[in-house]
TrEMBL record:
Keyword DNA-binding on entry: yes
Domain Response regulatory: 9-125
Residue ranges annotated for the HTH luxR-type domain, each copy included: 141-206
GO biological process: phosphorelay signal transduction system; regulation of DNA-templated transcription
Membrane-traversing stretches: none
PTM-bearing positions, type 4-aspartylphosphate: D60
PANTHER family on file: TWO-COMPONENT RESPONSE REGULATOR
Protein name (database record): Two component transcriptional regulator, LuxR family
Keywords (A to Z) from UniProt: DNA-binding, Phosphoprotein
InterPro entries: CheY-like_superfamily (IPR011006), NreC/VraR/RcsB-like_REC (IPR058245), Sig_transdc_resp-reg_C-effctor (IPR016032), Sig_transdc_resp-reg_receiver (IPR001789), Tscrpt_reg_LuxR_C (IPR000792), WalR-like (IPR039420)
Domain of life: Bacteria
Species this protein is from: Pseudomonas kuykendallii
Length: 210
């Protein structure tokens, strides 16, 4: 991967205009980093990337139409050398793991943007990866955790939607005791204290969606 020489051109992709404005304000203070494009969803991101060919792209994961992971795959399919850092709200987000597998080379928590934004952009532009030490450790831990089975995902999704054990059992054609067993396994795998805690963790990590 060839490092960028000269000014660094950046594309920002996020469906929240205020976040894009905040990033633009930080970059405006850097003489060698220029914001060349913005996008509010994955489809627009692909179009803007084709038009601008930025050196570094900052990509939100949760967006309407085409999400960040799909956008990363689409961009990397056309432009294998694209340098992309993901923007995420939660540590240990399963979506972040998928994004990294899709080709993202950087990870930025939105809460630490002011501190790490410029450093991350310069690292990616230089051909390096940017994963803060504490995040790298959490990602490694998440990768090592046992994944929920398809049935457990079904159960957790229905719990998140407010369904009771009996209702879930009827819908899935299994016994209520089996549902309770699935819930115990889910809580164990997620290190959750109870079903509500399991749902919270599931949503934060991107395992399930409401």
């Amino acid at each position: 991967m060839t490092a960028v020489t000269g000014d660094i051109r950046v594309l920002v992709v996020d469906d929240h205009p205020l976040l894009r404005e905040g990033i633009a304000a930080v970059l405006d203070q850097q003489p060698d980093i220029h914001l060349v494009g913005e996008a509010g969803d994955g489809s627009e991101a692909l179009e803007r990337f084709r038009a601008e060919r930025p050196d570094v792209t900052l990509m939100d994961l949760q967006m309407p139409e085409m999400n960040g992971i799909e956008a990363i795959r689409a961009i990397r399919a056309e432009f294998p050398d694209a340098r992309i850092a993901i923007l995420t709200t939660y540590r240990g987000d399963v979506r972040a793991l998928h994004a990294i597998k899709a080709g993202a080379q950087g990870y930025l928590l939105k809460s630490t943007l002011r501190k790490e934004l410029v450093e991350a952009i310069r690292a990616l532009a230089a051909g390096r990866r940017h994963f803060p030490a504490e995040i790298a450790a959490e990602l490694a831990e998440s990768l090592g955790q046992e994944a929920l089975s398809p049935r457990e995902l079904q159960v957790l999704q229905r719990v998140a939607q407010g369904a009771a054990n009996k209702q879930i059992a009827n819908e899935l054609g299994i016994s209520e005791d089996t549902i309770k067993g699935h819930l115990r396994s889910i809580m164990d795998k997620l290190s959750a204290n109870n079903r509500t805690h399991a749902v919270t963790i599931g949503i934060q990590r991107g395992i399930i969606e409401l």
